[in-house]
Amino acid sequence: MTLTKRIIPCIDVDLDEDGNAAVYTGVNFEDLQYTGDPVEMARRYNEAGADEFVLLDITASAEGRETMLGVVEGVADEVFIPLTVGGGIRTRADVKETLRAGADKVSINTGALERPELITEGAGAFGSQCIVISVDARRRYDEGGEHYATVDGESCWFECTVKGGREGTGVDVVEWAREAERRGAGELFVNSIDADGTKDGYDIPLTRSVCESVSTPVIASSGCGGPEDMYEVFTEAGADAGLAASIFHFGEYSIRETKEYLADRGLPIRL
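-> structure tokens emitted (271 positions)
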């Protein structure tokens, strides 16, 4: 049985100047601009036919604070599709609190890289289906990696970063994806810092490198400029889901027309 490809809108949430939660959109994880209210946007995407929904608290890890659980509760009240929440999750207790607030899955990046046992603990306590390992990857054109891909005629590897892409780790993305799978991760959420917000298309070499190395479902993220980019990442890289933000936030494309575009080209899509 062929699994349907999933279309997933994502909101990046931060605190505004008054301390209220707000959605922001940027380029290469920087130059963030106010986009809207998280609960209202969640309601809109639920009604639009999204397959799942992702909420990322984009500064929780960098600022060393907990995820905005009140916002999670508000969003969970508005969506009746699987909800993934990430940002600031460092312990088994954090996982439990986030799931209790209404998330169906938690996305973990920094906390898992700092202590990989968190993946094993989370999968053991709550089930692998709840544990999504987020990878914020950037290209490196040096000899520090273990697995290389050719990008525009040059050889590069992909490095895991933490704290919202602010710090490198020296960890090779492919090796980390394999370890995360061994430890029980139910899904891998692959973000490209190089492609983020550019609308030039997903990082196909990055996504393909991960998809070819694991059997765990892979969500492709960063760089989507339209339905044709989703088609490419599904057919050329093997992604199981395509995540996008700005093309949906600003009304350039709807969830419906994106799904119809993909279905018309023979991909298994839930309409």
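The chain has one domain: 6-264.
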